[in-house]
Amino acid sequence: MSEKISEAFEKVATKVTKWTGSSLAFGVAFAIILVWGITGPLFGYSDTWQLVINTGTTIITFLMVFIIQKSQNKDSKAIQLKLNELIAASRHASNRMVDIEDLSEAELDTLHKFYQRLSDISEKDHDIHLSHSIDAADDLYEKKKKFKSRKNEPEVD
User: Fold this and answer.
1) Is 130 within 8 Å of 144 (Cβ atoms)?
2) Per the structure, how many domains does the chain have?
3) Which of 1, 50, 98, 123 is least crowded, fewest Cβ atoms below 10 Å from its Cβ?
4) 150 and 119, same structural domain?
5) Residues 14 and 71 sit within 8 Å (Cβ to Cβ)
6) Each residue of 11-27: pLDDT tens digit?
7) What is the DSSP letter of 43?
8) Could you say which of 89, 116, 136 is where a domain stops?
9) What are residue 10's phi and psi, to 5 degrees?
10) Structural domain that includes position 78
């Protein structure tokens, strides 16, 4: 039963998000606000008149938070799967990056520091294409450094 409810919610959420992101939905919302504003003098700008719009917008906002979150979760998962496929397909990419969205904030910060280090190493060489992954960055940098130092050594006769 729970699976059927989940599937139904997903279908409704998808349709609602598509519709609410349309020009027609904006037009309807704008028209409602316009009608409400025009009717103000008819109701003497009463507390009830103000309560109608406040209650309506609060309820819609509350419900939309959950629908938008559902849609974002689905989109995020799809993007992560596409990125995982690209990582898995690339022989130069580190497979450690697959499913990193499940890491803690601290673990992601540590990973960010590794990539910052990789960027710093690449900047020294003025070529970001020379290092490919966290795993190879330090070794590759040391090899390049040795090669450059040998190249710059004076030739001995």
Assistant:
1) yes
2) 2
3) 1
4) yes
5) yes
6) 999 999 999 999 999 99
7) T
8) 89
9) -60, -45
10) 1-89
